[in-house]
Amino acid sequence: MTEPPFLSALLTIVEAAATVAFALSGLLEAARKRLDAVGVCVVAGLAAFGGGTLRDVLLDRRPFFWVEHANWLWALLALCIAAMLFLRARHLAPTERAMQWPDAIGLGLFTAGGTQVALAAGMPAIVAVLMGVVTAVFGGVLRDIVCNEIPSAFRDHRPYAVCAFAGGWVLVGAQALALPAWAGVLAAAAVATGLRALALATGAKLPAWSVGDAARD
Amino acid sequence: MTEPPFLSALLTIVEAAATVAFALSGLLEAARKRLDAVGVCVVAGLAAFGGGTLRDVLLDRRPFFWVEHANWLWALLALCIAAMLFLRARHLAPTERAMQWPDAIGLGLFTAGGTQVALAAGMPAIVAVLMGVVTAVFGGVLRDIVCNEIPSAFRDHRPYAVCAFAGGWVLVGAQALALPAWAGVLAAAAVATGLRALALATGAKLPAWSVGDAARD
Amino acid sequence: MTEPPFLSALLTIVEAAATVAFALSGLLEAARKRLDAVGVCVVAGLAAFGGGTLRDVLLDRRPFFWVEHANWLWALLALCIAAMLFLRARHLAPTERAMQWPDAIGLGLFTAGGTQVALAAGMPAIVAVLMGVVTAVFGGVLRDIVCNEIPSAFRDHRPYAVCAFAGGWVLVGAQALALPAWAGVLAAAAVATGLRALALATGAKLPAWSVGDAARD
Asked: B23 in helix, strand or coil?
């Protein structure tokens, strides 16, 4: 790896913070689907670690975040158990809306971390940006596939992955301008999170594709 | 690899025996879903080899079981053809109940084999146990995902993956006590299979999570 | 790698031509499912690159086709945008029937390319043929899983994967006869595509498995 120690530490913090936000999205999806305790933990874990793990498998990069920092698996387990106890006791109905902010922040952080890792591995710019999107979005995609849903990132029509895509290019541009790595990572995360927040605030929609009565034989 | 030859041979036998049990679970699921002959073979193969293959991809371990022992692919093909001929001739309706025993034995064997492989690869204890669970449970998870079901391991509320989880810790404990590897593997398999059998016999259920009317916008 | 340069170039051409055909199948599936623009691009990309990428992950082979030839990601993006603009303007309802020919040609090309890559990596014959099938069929399988369908390759009852399986063995046979690699690749692609065309023309069906009222508890 060509990463300097400081950048490596920054990436670890970035991935850790985003991990908690995404684990919560998995928890809520699992609750909605009435999964059992095992399903709750697995879906939360997939949402939290799935995107980064898929990126690392594609980049052939080891060890995984959750192997190098195995205590995070205990933290995830504790989070799931606490959520099941707490949410049961209070009969709190978690809503999509309450999750939008941590999810938007996680989107930005994972995008920046994933793109940076791929650039450090020498990937071409478009592949690095794609790896950023995979890191940010495919945890949720795996979560939805396991819960037997079409991934919301692909049918929601609200900008989500495109915010990550834009954020990834900010990091590529910052590196091309020879800016410090931490500045590029922060700018990329801010752009992705900001675009997502803007999309939620304005209700912007992706262009729809009206293909008429597309036949299904 | 640091595995001695004897342990390597033991692991091969363990994985082989469990493979047949899990292939049968895939066969029955494919039959229920009215898949064609290709679907039957693929779903049986995923159920049999999917968990171990996913573990090896995550551990970056090659060759896979079914590459090193490629004759097992022929055996799987023969098993599927035989099942389709035999089950068609007898109009036998396979039931969940008939599958519970071989499935419980496969659960124990795959857990022990998977955990041992991960410990031999130098993984931390929690990761090794998780790899044992992946080996034992994710063949069935992939089987259910391909069959467009929420994986039964995540919504069944009967202990399944938690039995594997407990069995994996038995192996970690046996290694910490410096017991011979074969003793640890056998004890882990016995505990996981025994707990599963106990769960089926007593009808024990995982704690449910009643989150009230979790809103879906 | 033991591949001579000529064969390597041939394999690149083969994979490129098949990629376009499969991307179109993903585009149409995404349109039928009313996915948004992101979903259209991802599903088209999975259908196009998913099979080869899964093969390369299993064979532990890097770089991927779409990393080595990253411009193909731009081409895919352009294809998706063009399709969304063009198909929207004309209100053209794409049909299964119109896709059958490019899909059959892609099936043959991917089978030949995938089997050749696995043979060059020293895999046993049955594994190499299986990798050819994975390359040809699992892009569509991933496409269908993301779209929350049982993969059509597993339940369609019309020969598809079995055509790839037969084509793969043609390549293994050609290599055993010491024929030139290009001859084997072309023969394998022709056999797989030809068998698929024959199956479509004759309406041949895979044997069904009537298990009676297979119980689901």
From this structure: helix
